[in-house]
Amino acid sequence: MGALVVFALVAAALTLFVTEWLPPDMTAIAVLVALVVLEPYTGVPARTSIEGFASPAVVTIVAMYILSAGVESAGVVDWLAGRLAALTGGDEQRLLAAIVGTTGVSAGFVNNTPVVAVFIPLVTGLSERYGISPSNLLLPLSFAAMLGGTLTLVGTSTNLLASDLSAQLLGRPFSMFTLTPVGVVVLAVGVAYLLTVGRALVPERVHPAADFTEEFDMDRHLSQLQVRESSPLVGLTVQEALEGGVPDDVVEAVADVVDAGESLPTEATVEQVLAASDPLDIDVLQIDRNGESFFATATDRPLEPGDVLTVRGNRQAVNQFAQTLDLRDLARESVTADLLAESGHPGVLAEAVIHRESRLRGRRLADVQLRSRFDVTVLAVRRGDEIIHENLAAVELSAGDLLLLQTPLDEVGHLQDEGYLFLTEGPPELFDALDGGPPSLDAAAAVPLATLLAVIALAALDLLPIYIAALGGVVATVATGTLSASKAYDAVSWNIVFLLAGLLPLGQAMQATGGAAFVGGLLVDAAGVLPPLALLALVYLLTAVLASVITPAATVVLMIPIAVATAAEIGVAGFPFLVVVTFAVATSFLTPIGYQTNLMVYGPGGYRFTDFLRVGGPLQLLLCVVTTLSVSVVWPL
């Protein structure tokens, strides 16, 4: 009965992970609560259920987030990225080799998410400069970061979690370099694939050197309108128009005129017009006057006859807007990214992706009010191969959505720092504003690097447990001024911490109730006459597929007890099966939703969902063979 209850909880958790009705971390906590409530069946008491928050894996993950942030804040990764740009000279093959090689090695010691975060704008910038499609580089970038995570214990959070489970189930935790012999082989084979077969399979979804307006197909959604002397806009600022406060009866009256397609009387104010014309889905972006340009949401200059307004909206809405406000439609003037980029005002065009932990995820643009709060205007949303131009206020944002923004330089940092979105492409001054200037490396960078290396050395030499060494590194990071205490706490992805800690009791329940042994027996029965090595490969494939659909953390918690039980059923060593699950989870390439870095490059690369299967499928099968054989050689069955 207990195993059935646990299986029901597993099924419910998998459903929630796939549908994302609840955030994954909240699903994990819900599972933890359910296990305790159903203790007579699950065998998980209250005190045991929360032990995950103090597990060595979770504590080490928290510390490594902070240590990685210290290295990143010192500009080490930025400097390295800049050096690569200078050394490759625009040759696509050399650039690809430099990106995957550097990312793969770096991700073995620094959390791969910030590494990819730094490289995405570098790659898109170099792509534009040298006429290379960013699609050719971004997917290999993500895959290389995943491959590098298999090099060491701290390469990815699932390695640490697997080590914790190995200690519980087999009394054999990982050391710092336990996975390295196989990890080196996996990285080498993966990089070779990405530079040869993978390069040929990666689709060119974004045209080389395409500007933002071309990339987001904005040619029919950006227009210019000239203010006539008789326009009711004359003498008013755009800011006044956006402040609101229009009586409902006035708005309704003006809306009736707009709907009828008639011109407004001259005494009508721009505030009334814009309030009434919201249904037209129009945004004013820029004002041009006598060779000068002004950012529409920030300027306090009253509009004058002859001013040219750059607006976002479809042709029908723009025509109606122009007729209503007595504006001249400059239909022959095309609006390009260069026209907006070379404006001289603080507004710039940029791309940003909605990441899995974004505060905007699941919310409508109308509810977020980016324009009124941050002076940020969303011009379009790319979702896979679909581009949304109209009725943007009603769009509910999802993880992986790519947004085309017009944003001021002095505000954009708030959006990224406060977890709204992640900027992927824009002018160099945009990232200089975020990073505090162009990347450079000085003597101060030696402190976080030395701290990280000391932590790795202490753990590798077994002088201290990894979690104690890492916590000591956190103290050193704050004590030396590399990070303030508040920034250290901010560097931790607490949702990942709650996800891991919440799921650990589920693995314990699977083991305690016999559920893992039952599934292991079914796996053995299904395998039939397969030899142990073939069964090991089957476990790898099942794990990789599952990790590509739900979170890697959930997969490792579910599959490791099953893998160990399967090994016990056929009378072979459990450690090779546990290690194979660890590698399969860390290298789940089949979808953009299984791994965070895949989701980060999904929008900027313009990829389709199936592109990950197209490129990642052959690599997954190749690594199934390579990993299975390598594991069986290093740890014989």
- Low-pLDDT ranges: 242-251, 264-272
Whole-number radius of gyration?
27 Å
Give a count of the beta strands, DSSP E runs of length 2 or more. Answer: 10
Shape: elongated
> Structural class of the secondary structure composition?
alpha+beta
Helix content: 55-70%
Strand content: 5-15%
The main sheet comes to:
5 strands, antiparallel
Mean pLDDT comes to 81
User: How many individual helices?
Assistant: 32
Our measurement of the CA-to-CA distance between the termini, rounded to an integer number of angstroms, reads 33 Å
> Can you list the strand order of the major beta sheet?
3-2-4-1-5
Number of discrete domains: 3
Quaternary form = single chain
Main location: membrane
InterPro entries: Cit_transptr-like_dom, DASS-Related_Transporters, RCK_C, RCK_C_sf
Domain RCK C-terminal: 239-327, 337-421
Membrane topology: Multi-pass membrane protein
Supply database-style keywords.
637 residues, alpha+beta, Alpha-Beta Plaits, 5-stranded antiparallel beta sheet, 32 helices, 59% helix, elongated, DASS-Related_Transporters, transmembrane
Reconstruct the topology from this structure.
Layout: H1 2-19, H2 24-37, H3 39-42, H4 46-49, H5 56-73, H6 76-88, H7 92-106, H8 112-130, H9 135-148, H10 157-170, H11 180-195, H12 197-201, H13 212-215, E1 222-227, H14 238-242, H15 248-259, H16 270-276, E2 283-289, E3 292-295, E4 308-312, H17 315-324, E5 327-329, H18 337-341, E6 347-353, H19 365-368, H20 370-374, E7 377-383, E8 386-388, E9 402-408, H21 409-417, E10 422-425, H22 428-435, H23 446-460, H24 466-479, H25 485-490, H26 494-512, H27 515-527, H28 532-549, H29 552-570, H30 574-586, H31 596-602, H32 609-634
Antiparallel strand pairs: 1-4, 1-5, 2-3, 2-4, 6-9, 6-10, 7-8, 7-9
Helix pairs in contact: 1-2, 2-26, 5-10, 5-23, 5-24, 6-7, 6-8, 7-9, 7-11, 8-9, 8-31, 9-11, 9-31, 10-29, 10-30, 11-32, 15-16, 21-22, 23-24, 26-29, 27-29, 28-29, 28-30, 28-32, 29-30, 30-32
Domain RCK C-terminal: 239-327, 337-421
Pfam family, one: TrkA_C
Organism: Haloarcula amylolytica JCM 13557
